[in-house]
Amino acid sequence: MPSLGRYIPSSLVSPRIRSAARQRLAELGGMTLWLLALALAASLWSYNPRDPSMNTASTQAPTNLLGVVGAYLADALLQNIGITCALPVLALVAWGWRVARHTGLGSVPVRVVALLCAM
């Protein structure tokens, strides 16, 4: 996590304010993970096999809620890992909850490898 000491001299900020700022940054990080989960879920939910993607040429505009990016993302995920593409959505929600509740994630690389193995 970034240190406030880089931007604000420690003599100007009390430890209480510094602690509160760290807590708010953690909550913001959790909300960011939730937004990523929501975007991924919206992309997968609005998947249309007729949307333009890497292996589908189409002149029509994508119907995916996230547009071209969502169409490409949903197509790639569904073709490569199938229905288990819902696992990253669930993992992002769970990780966001842990970060927002100030419990931390522990070892992030281990969690990412475990998620990949679960898929």
TrEMBL record:
Organism of this sequence: Nguyenibacter vanlangensis
Broad class of the protein's primary localization: membrane
Domain of life: Bacteria
Coiled-coil residue windows: none
Record-annotated DNA translocase FtsK 4TM region domain positions: 23-118
One annotated Gene Ontology cellular component of this protein: plasma membrane
Keywords: Cell membrane, Membrane, Transmembrane, Transmembrane helix
InterPro entries for the chain: FtsK_4TM
Membrane topology: Multi-pass membrane protein
Name of the protein in its database record: DNA translocase FtsK 4TM domain-containing protein
A Pfam family reported for this protein in Swiss-Prot or TrEMBL: FtsK_4TM
Bilayer-crossing regions: 25-47, 76-97
Subcellular location(s) per record: Cell membrane
